[in-house]
Write a structure and sequence with these properties.
mainly beta; seven-stranded mixed sheet; 0% helix; 53% strand; globular
Length: 116
């Protein structure tokens, strides 16, 4: 399974950050998969944002649940992250991840900077 993040590298404060993860080598509806968004702010550790199951059920980090939405586009084999009302503290490298039966697949990550 290969994953590739895409989206704008610069977002202004108060706007909505939107990223897409394109999946290849596997179907986003395959059983047992969790499709996850994780971020790493500069100088800090990894932070789990949320996930969507192959069934379409979503899970969110309590820290960001009110601002986070994860959805999927099965026709294009993609899943997306939307984070609303961003602040400079949301500046991070954002990764998409696929987890299944103890295995992990990662995208290369994309840097998103929140700045006016």
């Amino acid at each position: 399974v290969q994953l590739q993040e895409s989206g704008p590298g610069l977002v202004k404060p108060s706007q909505t950050l939107s990223l897409t993860c394109t999946v290849s080598g596997g179907s986003i509806t395959s059983n047992y998969y969790y499709w996850t968004w994780i971020r790493q702010p500069p100088g800090k550790g990894l932070e789990w944002m949320g996930a969507i199951k192959s069934s379409g059920y979503t899970y969110y980090s309590p820290s960001h649940q009110s601002r986070t939405s994860i959805s999927r586009d099965t026709s294009n084999n993609q899943f997306t992250l939307q984070l609303s009302s961003v602040t400079p503290e949301d500046t991070a490298v954002y990764y998409c991840n696929a987890g299944v039966l103890g295995m992990d697949y990662w995208g290369k990550g994309t840097l998103v900077t929140v700045s006016s």
